[in-house]
Description:
Layout: H1 21-38, E1 42-43, E2 49-51, H2 52-60, H3 64-69, E3 72-74, E4 80-83, H4 88-97, E5 107-116, E6 128-137, H5 142-158, E7 163-169, H6 178-191, H7 198-206, H8 217-223, H9 235-250, E8 256-257, E9 269-277, E10 285-291, H10 295-298, E11 306-309, H11 313-319, E12 332-336, H12 341-354, E13 359-361, H13 368-378, E14 382-386, H14 388-393, E15 395-400, E16 406-410, H15 411-418
Parallel strand pairs: 1-5, 7-8, 12-13, 12-14
Antiparallel strand pairs: 2-4, 3-4, 5-6, 6-11, 7-9, 9-10, 10-11, 14-15, 15-16
Amino acid sequence: MSEDARGLGAPKGTRDILPPESWGWQDVLRLAMDTFAAAGYAPIETPAFEHTEVFERGVGATSEVVGKQMYTFRDRGNRSLTLRPEGTAPVMRAVLEHNLHRGPLPVKLSYAGPMFRQERPQKGRYRQFFQVGIEAIGSDDPRVDAEIIEVGSRFYRAAGVETRLLLNSIGHLDPSCRQGYVKLLVGYLEDNESSLAPEDRERIQTNPLRTFDSKEATTKTVMEEAPLISDHLCSACRGHFEAVTGLLAEVGVPFTLEPRLVRGLDYYTRTAFEWVASGLGSQDAVGGGGRYDGLSESLGGPPLPGIGIAPGLDRIMLARSAAVAPRSPVQVYVVAVGEAAKPASFGLATSLRAAGVGTELDLMGRSIKGQMKDAARSGARWAAILGDDEISSGTVMLKDLDSGEQETMPVEQLRSRVGS
């Protein structure tokens, strides 16, 4: 870092993504969006900040995200705005604002972008983090749940990430299902309050389900004997969940039933799930999602069931197989031998790029040896070498940087040769 830039590093909990990691990052991002598009999910872009009320009403005022983690500020018009901590509530807000729900259902959308939460930074968890996601809004058919989960599982496989899918149902928000269960859970937690970690005692009245997600050893011991939502589902939720698991089994998506799985946002209902990867320690979740059938109403819209997933790219890149090397877009590196070859090398590189061939060339006046080293660093497969002899004969020497083999050919044949 230069003397002038000292003290001006990236803010705590953020990072710069530099080459060559950035190539792999872009590869995974493109793979995600292509996988989602192949299932009919169209891209949507929402603002990086929203009116704070979108998250207070949508995510839930009792959630830790709203209560402790949001970046909220007032603009010059004294409006309360918040950097988005998650992507689902903004997507639902956009669907309602633009009346997408009045068209064909379900509305199927995909997104990618940075999210912001003021959490304690640790490996794989940042205050600015990047998520991709899909949302299917307007249908409570179990096939929608199964499709969302299958598409997510297919993306992880394609990205080279070995995951295990954890699956649960947390019931619906009505007295015959989750509300009755929560009363039972609160009673159990109150009876065992003295054995809970201090911060988990606070959750008894605000968000009792989150005690299942506690990392505190004393709380974990208590929760081993806690009543489970899976034992108290209403008949409708039980039937819905059995249909979802049956569909997943039919199409060969493996899963593990995890009756203690909960999600951190208040809007989740019924199907809840998480993908975990090995080798990441306690922070092993690489994405998750679930149903949010009451979110539309909380934002002032009509009853509009929905479900979505949100894979996190930061942890995916940590978990991705080391065998999956970042792919360089550079195919050819043009090497200029002598001053006279510099203009010709520039012209050749330009013509190759125009033909869709990723091409680099020396822009520092390096020696031939230096250019060949730079060619290897670029990730190119080929070095196209131009000297006085090649320029006078209208040829180019093409060297395979993997095998070391080289051949001389007419310049006009180069494009078809490197594109094969």
